[in-house]
Amino acid sequence: MKATEVPEIAGAYLFESTPYADERGFFCRTFDADVVRSVGLDPHSFVQDSVSRSVRGVLRGLHLRSGAGEAKLVRCSYGRIFDVVVDLRTDSPTYRNRAFFALSGETQATLYIPAGCAHGFQALTEIADTSYRIDRSHDPSQDVTIAFNDPELGIPWPLPVTSMSQRDREAPSLAEVLKQQKS
Questions:
Q1: Which of 27, 60, 108, 144 has the fewest CB atoms within 10 Å distance of its CB?
Q2: Which of 44, 78, 132, 138 is catalytic?
Q3: pTM for the complete prediction?
Q4: Would you call 63 a catalytic residue per the annotation?
């Protein structure tokens, strides 16, 4: 497993695994505390694991947490997703940068997203399972959602959206979210 810094988002990393395939299928290490520690992250800081299953065209996001935020490790464990990160840390040298990733069950790559960044993805296959390892317990009062189709962000979602939550459908623009956070 190797860690590569994501140039568009300060403090973000892509952890690339090496799946070993044979006639039985494959085996792959998806988390290695030593590799995580080698880039300055505390592997013991993650307190919650979650998984979502989406069908082709489903869009989830853009989500982040207010307050101290939440860092997460995201991996597509089955299928393929188009993954998006937007840096919303005002003190970051990559503030407002976006980065796009193709994550898949074939590669088992894991993306580390620092606290203060918005995250979303779209399922590209009939089934896409996405795993999350999060560094703080969920507090619904800190949920923040940004419109996936905000023209200021200009995210090139690859498929028409087939489904999304009501919360995501009704999300405010980035400008509105930033204005609310300043108040």
A1: 27
A2: 132
A3: 0.94
A4: yes
